[in-house]
Structures are given as C-alpha cells and as structure tokens.
C-alpha cells in the first residue's frame, strides 16, 4: 500500500497570539511555583527541618517547645514547677538530667525564633509524660521564661579521623564505651550515660555473676591491657521482665537491659564521655547505618579482641528479621536486628551489653544516641542471622525510674 502523504496545514499563529499564549504559560507556571512554595513552606514549618519538638536554645539556654497546632515554637513561661519541668525536658531530649535552671525576663532573651508562650498545667505534670502534654498556650503574665542547662552527651571531645568484620577503633572515638570486668576479666560491654550510671544487658548478671565486689567498670581506654580506670559498682538493676532469669527454659530475650550505679563518680575527659539516650518516642529508621563497638570475639570460635572494635551495620526491619529464613517471629517490639543478610559483620560473644549508637541532629547539634544494647543472636556474622539488640527507646521510663529509685541503694535488684 502506498504511503499516505501528509497534507500541509496552514499556520494561524500571529505575533499577537504568540504573545498571549506565552503570557498565559508564564502565569500558569507562576501559579505552580507559588503553590509549590506554599506547600514546601508548610511542610518545612510543620516538620521544622527534622528537629525534635523540645529544644534548648544554645545562645541563651531558653527552653522552647513546638506548638504543632499553631505551627510555631513557644517559650515556656517560668513557674513554681521549674525544676520538674527542667528535669522532664532534659530526660525527654535524651540528656539524662538537668545541670541547672533559672528564669529570665523576656526582654533579656528576646524571641529567638519563638512566637508566644506555653504555661504549665501542674495537674498533668509527671515523669514519663511528654512535656507537650502538660503545656497550654498562654500570655505569660509574669514576663519570665524558663532557661535550662542539660548534661551534654553524645559528642566527642577529640577529633577522630568484637565485632566480626570490624576494625580497630581510635582512642576517644567512642568515649562512652566501657568494659565490665568480673574477677578482672572482661565479660560484657556497657555505655556511660552519666557520671554515675552505665547501661548494659540484663543477661550479663546471671546468678553466678552477682557478687558486686567482684565487678569493676573499666573506662578511658581502647586496649584491654592498658591501665585505664577501674571503678567499683554500688548497685545493679536489671529488668524484672527478662524471662531467662525467671525460667531458663523460656526462649524469649525481651527486656534484656540493666543499669549500673557506680560507687564513685566518673571524671569526664577526652576519653570518657556520656552518650545520649534516644529522645522520647524517637523512631529508629529501617536501613539506617549505625555503629556497634566492643571487645568481643572477632569470630565465633575465636579469641576476644584486645583493642576495641567498631563496625557499621544497617538496621533491619522487624518484619524482615521475623521472616522464616531469619529469626521466625522471635523478634519482639523491645528488640531490633542490625547487620547484613549475607553476614560477615556482626557483634559476637563478649560484645554483650555494649553500645549500638546512631548519629542525628534532632537537637540542632550532631549527637550520638544509644539506640541499642547488644543482646543476642545465632552464631556470629552468619547469613540471615544478624545481631539482635535491645531497643533502648522502649525503656525510656524504666531507665528514668531505676535511676531515681536506686541511686541511694547498694546491691543487685530486679525492677519492672
């Protein structure tokens, strides 16, 4: 069949029509631009660039809380409950405790990005409750706002340039890492969260390891053979929900967490610093690359490492880790997995209780947070058998209650 020949069409676009069409297109594109700008502005305003909803202004230490209904930051009006508000706010942000608080007149601190004020509803004020839930918008008739100084955490004081498949860490890179020694031998890892408190795993304190005088906390070094600092322990508090301590036949490692109260306080330095806890209700993102550290075995049937090891591993979703080829529904909501499906990099024996830390900037400054505690796993670095960690964000209130309840006691305690 012969090809059909196209019939030329006459052009009807005059210069005037072209101008009108061009103007219309520009107006249309401008409309799209304005709409996009409005959407982006709204999203940025409501999400506030990923910042946590409670902040301490670095310039004047003013406490600010985000009003999600009004879409703006508000300063907190000073009240007779300043001390409780300061402690709750610092804990919520993952800073463990406040160091000081005061009130300042509005004229001396200025707005600094905030607009309006929150007042405290004293009837709702209690530990374990988000600070936003106990505040309401007000005019702050006193004209004074609350300033708070929280304990710093999650930051190295030195510039920094066993874990299976990891590498040697440098001194001062992970200053919150400690070694828990029983009769002088390394048994577990742990993480400094304040000058008197360490977080570790409950399973480190089986019945045969409960004589406090035989425990010491080794800090300030990356080598097990260096002098370092050995500090005695005054109290150990492990979670009463850790089932293997109730019945050794129970195959459930939920609630594998403990805190240690030191007999003498730590002296912070370039090599000894606390790590932050997760902020209250902070989520751990699947696929996020974080770091696990420890002196454990460098292979399953190997020897413990003398030098602190570090390894970067991604968080694995619980849905994947509970799959038939992984851990088949053994991962509860108080745990998470991290590692590679093909294996090769993992925590191992001797790393138990040690830190799994992730870096973020939700408090404006980049900080490391203790998102996990090395808990358990099948073998070390095996395919589809990643390390399993205690999810620290699930124990925010438990940690806070244990620190308040047992700071004046001596012994080994079980607490729910």
UniProtKB/TrEMBL annotation:
CDD domains for this protein? Tryp_SPc
What keywords sit in the KW lines? Disulfide bond, Glycoprotein, Hydrolase, Membrane, Protease, Serine protease, Transmembrane, Transmembrane helix
Q: Which residues form the Peptidase S1 domain?
A: 163-404
GO annotation (BP), single:
proteolysis
- Which organism does this sequence originate in? Erpetoichthys calabaricus (Rope fish)
Q: Give GO terms: molecular function aspect only.
A: serine-type endopeptidase activity; serine-type exopeptidase activity
Q: Which InterPro entries match?
A: Hepsin-SRCR_dom (IPR015352), Peptidase_S1_PA (IPR009003), Peptidase_S1_PA_chymotrypsin (IPR043504), Peptidase_S1A (IPR001314), SRCR (IPR001190), SRCR-like_dom_sf (IPR036772), Trypsin_dom (IPR001254), TRYPSIN_HIS (IPR018114)
Q: Which Gene3D superfamilies match?
A: SRCR-like domain, Trypsin-like serine proteases
Q: Carries keyword Iron? A: no
Q: Where are the transmembrane segments?
A: 20-44
Q: Protein name, please?
A: Hepsin
């Amino acid at each position: 069949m012969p090809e059909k020949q196209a019939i030329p069409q006459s052009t009807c676009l005059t210069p005037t029509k072209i101008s009108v069409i061009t103007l219309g297109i520009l107006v249309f594109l401008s409309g799209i631009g304005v709409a996009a700008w409005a959407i982006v502005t709204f999203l940025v305003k409501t999400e506030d660039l990923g910042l946590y909803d409670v902040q301490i202004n670095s310039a004047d230490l003013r406490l600010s809380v985000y009003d999600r209904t009004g879409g703006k930051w508000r300063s907190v009006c000073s009240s007779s409950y300043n001390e409780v508000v300061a402690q709750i706010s610092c804990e919520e942000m993952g800073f463990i405790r406040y160091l000081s608080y005061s009130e300042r007149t509005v004229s001396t601190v200025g707005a600094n990005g905030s607009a309006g004020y929150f007042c405290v509803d004293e009837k709702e004020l209690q530990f374990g409750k988000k600070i936003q839930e106990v505040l309401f918008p007000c005019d702050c008739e006193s004209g004074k706002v609350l300033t708070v100084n929280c304990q710093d955490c999650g930051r190295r004081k030195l510039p920094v340039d066993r874990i299976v498949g990891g590498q040697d860490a440098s001194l001062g890179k992970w200053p919150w890492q400690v070694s828990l020694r029983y009769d002088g031998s390394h048994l577990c890892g742990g993480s400094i969260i304040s000058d008197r408190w360490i977080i570790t795993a409950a399973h480190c304190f089986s019945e045969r390891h409960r004589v406090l005088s035989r425990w010491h906390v080794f800090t300030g070094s990356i080598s097990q053979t260096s002098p370092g600092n050995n500090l005695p322990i005054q109290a150990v508090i492990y979670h009463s929900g850790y089932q293997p301590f109730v019945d050794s036949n129970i195959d459930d490692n939920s609630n594998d967490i403990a805190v240690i109260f030191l007999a003498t306080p730590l002296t912070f330095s370039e090599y000894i610093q606390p790590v932050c806890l997760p902020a209250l209700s902070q989520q751990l993102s699947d696929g996020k690359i974080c770091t696990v550290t420890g002196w454990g075995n460098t292979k399953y049937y190997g020897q413990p490492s003398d030098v602190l090891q570090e390894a970067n591993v991604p968080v694995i979703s619980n849905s994947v880790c509970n799959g038939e080829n992984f851990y088949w529904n053994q991962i509860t909501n108080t745990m998470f997995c991290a590692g590679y499906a093909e294996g090769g990099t993992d925590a191992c024996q001797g790393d138990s209780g040690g830190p799994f830390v992730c870096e973020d900037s939700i408090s404006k400054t980049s900080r490391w947070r203790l998102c996990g505690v090395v808990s358990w796993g099948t073998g070390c670095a095996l395919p589809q058998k990643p390390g399993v960690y205690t999810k620290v964000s699930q124990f925010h209130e438990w940690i806070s209650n244990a620190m308040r309840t047992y700071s004046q006691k001596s012994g080994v305690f079980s607490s729910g």
